[in-house]
Design brief:
- The complex is a heterodimer.
- By secondary structure, chain A is mainly β.
- Chain A contains no helices and eleven strands.
- In chain A, the strands form two sheets. In chain A, strands 2, 4, 5, 6, 9, 10 and 11 form a seven-stranded mixed sheet that branches. A four-stranded antiparallel sheet of chain A has the order 1-3-8-7, with no helix packed on it.
- In chain A, a hairpin with a 6-residue loop joins strand 4 (31-37) and strand 5 (44-50).
- Chain A starts with a strand and ends with a strand.
- The model of chain A has no long low-confidence stretch (mean pLDDT 94).
- Chain B is an all-beta fold.
- Chain B is built from no helices and twelve strands.
- Chain B has strands at residues 3-5, 10-14, 19-21, 24-26, 32-38, 44-50, 56-58, 64-68, 73-78, 87-94, 101-102, 106-111.
- Chain B is globular.
- In chain B, 36% of the residues are buried.
- Classes of the chains: A mainly beta, B mainly beta.
Chain lengths: 113, 112
C-alpha cells in the first residue's frame, strides 16, 4: 500500500502570498492531521480532521485553514505568508481520531522570502 | 496541559552497546505514548506505542520502550545499537483526544 503522500515537495513563496499544500492519506485512514516543524524543533500540531470535520486546532492564527474532502484527502491553506511560516509542513494520517498511531508523509518544505 | 520533555539534545553510543533515549510526559488522564524516528529530509516514522497493558512495549527495528507510571516516563531502548540507528527521535503523547504533543527531539549518534 502507498504511504501518505504530500505535494508539492518544495515551495518558495513571497511574503503576503497564499499557499495550498495537499495530502493524501493511507487508504482506509479517515483522519488527517497537519503539523508544522521548524528546524531543530518537534512537530507542532495545527489541525486534525476526521470524517471531513475539524476535530481540533492548535495555537495557530486564522491565516491557517484546512479542509478534508470526501475521499479523505486534505488541503492546508496559509494566507498572508510571513517569513516565520518557513518550515516543513507534515501531514499524518491515522485510522481514526484519538489515540491511534499516526503515519507521516515526507512533508512539504515551504520557504517564504 | 499536555507536555513532553526529552532532556537530552544528543545521545552518543558505541555500536553494539545498549542505548536509551529518555522521555517524560505530563497529561491529564491516561496517556497514549509514542516514539517516532526521523531521518534527514524525511517525515517521521512510527516506531512503537503504549496505550495500556504490559509496561514494556516492543516496536520496529528491535526498539522497545518502558512505561513507568510513577515516574511519568517512557524511555526508548535498544539492547545493541547499530550505526544505521543514527537519527532524530521524537517522543509524543496524547490523552486520547485530537492533540498530539511532540518533544523537541533527541539526536542519536551511534559510533562505529
Amino acid at each position: 500500500d502507498a504511504g501518505v503522500t504530500q505535494s508539492p515537495t518544495h515551495l518558495i513563496k513571497t511574503r503576503g502570498q497564499q499557499v495550498t499544500l495537499r495530502c493524501s492519506p493511507i487508504s482506509g485512514h479517515k483522519s488527517v492531521s497537519w503539523y508544522q516543524q521548524v528546524l531543530g524543533q518537534g512537530p507542532q500540531f495545527i489541525f486534525q480532521y476526521y470524517e471531513k470535520e475539524e476535530r481540533g486546532r492548535g495555537n495557530f492564527p486564522d491565516r491557517f485553514s484546512a479542509r478534508q474532502f470526501p475521499n479523505y484527502s486534505s488541503e492546508l491553506n496559509v494566507n498572508a505568508l510571513l517569513l516565520g511560516d518557513s518550515a516543513l509542513y507534515l501531514c499524518a494520517s491515522s485510522l481514526a481520531a484519538g489515540g491511534y498511531e499516526q503515519y507521516f508523509g515526507p512533508g512539504t518544505r515551504l520557504t517564504v522570502t | 496541559a499536555q507536555s513532553v520533555a526529552q532532556p537530552e539534545d544528543q545521545v552518543n553510543v558505541a555500536e553494539g552497546n545498549p542505548l536509551t533515549v529518555k522521555c517524560t510526559y505530563s497529561v491529564s488522564g491516561n496517556p497514549y505514548l509514542f516514539w517516532y524516528v526521523q531521518y534527514p529530509n524525511r517525515g517521521l516514522q512510527f516506531l512503537l506505542k503504549y496505550i495500556t497493558g504490559d509496561n514494556l512495549v516492543k516496536g520496529s527495528y528491535g526498539f522497545e520502550a518502558e512505561f513507568n507510571k510513577s515516574q511519568t516516563s517512557f524511555h526508548l531502548k535498544k539492547p545493541s545499537a547499530l550505526v544505521s540507528d543514527s537519527a532524530l527521535y521524537f517522543c509524543a503523547v496524547t490523552s486520547g483526544t485530537y492533540k498530539y504533543i511532540f518533544g523537541t527531539g533527541t539526536r542519536l549518534k551511534v559510533l562505529a
